[in-house]
Automatic annotation (TrEMBL):
<dbReference type="InterPro" id="IPR030811">
    <property type="entry name" value="SoxH-rel_PQQ_1"/>
</dbReference>
<dbReference type="GO" id="GO:0017001">
    <property type="term" value="P:antibiotic catabolic process"/>
</dbReference>
<dbReference type="Pfam" id="PF00753">
    <property type="entry name" value="Lactamase_B"/>
</dbReference>
<comment type="similarity">
    <text>Belongs to the metallo-beta-lactamase superfamily. Class-B beta-lactamase family.</text>
</comment>
<dbReference type="InterPro" id="IPR050855">
    <property type="entry name" value="NDM-1-like"/>
</dbReference>
<feature type="domain" description="Metallo-beta-lactamase">
    <location>
        <begin position="52"/>
        <end position="233"/>
    </location>
</feature>
<dbReference type="GO" id="GO:0016787">
    <property type="term" value="F:hydrolase activity"/>
</dbReference>
<protein>
    <submittedName>
        <fullName>Quinoprotein relay system zinc metallohydrolase 1</fullName>
    </submittedName>
</protein>
<keyword id="KW-0378">Hydrolase</keyword>
<dbReference type="InterPro" id="IPR001279">
    <property type="entry name" value="Metallo-B-lactamas"/>
</dbReference>
<dbReference type="InterPro" id="IPR036866">
    <property type="entry name" value="RibonucZ/Hydroxyglut_hydro"/>
</dbReference>
Length: 310
C-alpha cells in the first residue's frame, strides 16, 4: 500500500503540467502564399494562454515574412513550427503591427530574423514592454514562462517593401496606439489591418490618441484596393463589414462619451450606459466600454471644461 501511494505521489509530481500548455496553432491558407493563425475573440486567460490575436505569414520566393509574433515565447515557437510545416525557407522579416503584448511577445522565437516596426512602436515597446509582459504573466500564468521582451531591430518607413515577388505597401497610421502599421500585400490583395480593425470583438483603447483619429484611419483603410481583410482580432472578411462595424462602433463610443461629458455624468454612470442592440454580436463590449471610459473619458471631460460657456 505504502509503495502504491509512493508510486501515485511520484506520478503526480512527474505529470508535466507545462506539457498541456500547447497552443495547437492551425495555419489556414487564405490567399496565394498567405497563411492566417486566427485567435479567439476572448480576453486573456489561463485557458487561452493569450491566443486571442491574429498572426500571419507570407511565403515569398525570398523567404517568409511574419506578421506579429503572438503573446509569448511559447506561442512564437509554436508559430515557428507551424511555418516549418509549410516551408523550409527561412524567416527573412518580421513585421510588428504595434507594441501591444499579444502581438509582440513571441519575438524571442524569431531572433535571427530582422524584426521591424515603426519607430513609434519600438519607442512604446521600450517604455511599456516590460510592464506589459509582467501583466501578461499575471493574466495567463505559465504560458508566459521564459518570455522576455525583445525589441525590434529595424525601423520601418511607410511606403513599399518588396520581399521576393511580394510587394507590401506599409502604412503608418495611429488611431489604436499612436503607431499602427497596416500592411497591404499588393501581390495577394490581403490587407493586414493590425488592431486598427477589431471585428466581432470590442476594440481596446489603452493607448489610443483619440477616436476621431482612429475613425480617419478607418477611412484610409476603406480607400485601399484590398480583396481580403485580416483584422487584428476577429474573423477574416472579404467585404467591408469589419470597417462598417468599426466606423459604427467608434462613432457610437465617441458620441456617448461626448454627450455624457457634456451632461456632467461621472465615470461609473458612463460604465452602465446601454450598449445598442446592433452591437450584440461584439464580444466583450461591456468589459471594454468600462476600460475605455477609464482611458478616454477624462479627455472628454477636459474638453467640456475648456469650452467657453455660451
Ligand atoms: Zn492592440
Amino acid at each position: 500500500m505504502r509503495s502504491m501511494l509512493h508510486f501515485m505521489f511520484l506520478l503526480c509530481i512527474a505529470t508535466p503540467v507545462l506539457g498541456e500548455l500547447e497552443y495547437r496553432l492551425q495555419p489556414r491558407q487564405i490567399a496565394v502564399n498567405t497563411w492566417l493563425l486566427e485567435g479567439s475573440t476572448e480576453d486573456f486567460d489561463r485557458n487561452n494562454g493569450g491566443n486571442i490575436v491574429n498572426t500571419a505569414f507570407i511565403l515569398t520566393t525570398a523567404g517568409v515574412v511574419v506578421i506579429d509574433t503572438g503573446p509569448s515565447k511559447r506561442y512564437g515557437e509554436a508559430m515557428r513550427r507551424a511555418i516549418a510545416a509549410v516551408t523550409d525557407k527561412p524567416v527573412v522579416k518580421v513585421l510588428l503591427t504595434h507594441h501591444h503584448p499579444d502581438h509582440v511577445l513571441g519575438n524571442q522565437a524569431f531572433r535571427e530574423a530582422p524584426i521591424a516596426a515603426l519607430p513609434g512602436t519600438n519607442r512604446r515597446l521600450a517604455e511599456q514592454g516590460d510592464a506589459m509582459a509582467e501583466n501578461m504573466y499575471r493574466l495567463v500564468g505559465d504560458w508566459m514562462r521564459g518570455t522576455e521582451l525583445v525589441l525590434a531591430d529595424e525601423s520601418l518607413e511607410p511606403g513599399l517593401l518588396q520581399v521576393g515577388e511580394h510587394r507590401l505597401r506599409l502604412l503608418a497610421l495611429s488611431g489604436h496606439t499612436g503607431a499602427d502599421l497596416a500592411i497591404l500585400d499588393e501581390t495577394s490583395g490581403v490587407l493586414f489591418a493590425g488592431d486598427l480593425v477589431f471585428y466581432q470583438r470590442a476594440l481596446t483603447t489603452p493607448n489610443s490618441p483619440g477616436l476621431d483619429i482612429w475613425l480617419a484611419d478607418i477611412d484610409t483603410l476603406a480607400g485601399l484596393p484590398w480583396r481580403l481583410l485580416v483584422p487584428g482580432h476577429g474573423p477574416l472578411a472579404s467585404d467591408d463589414a469589419p470597417l462598417l462595424q468599426m466606423r459604427d462602433y467608434l462613432g457610437w463610443l465617441d458620441g456617448v462619451l461626448g454627450e455624457a461629458a457634456a451632461s456632467g455624468a461621472d465615470m461609473n454612470e458612463v460604465w452602465r450606459l446601454p450598449i445598442p442592440e446592433r452591437f450584440a454580436a461584439i464580444n466583450l463590449s461591456r468589459y471594454e466600454l468600462i476600460r475605455t471610459v477609464s482611458h478616454l473619458y477624462p479627455t472628454y471631460e477636459q474638453r467640456v471644461l475648456r469650452e467657453p460657456v455660451p
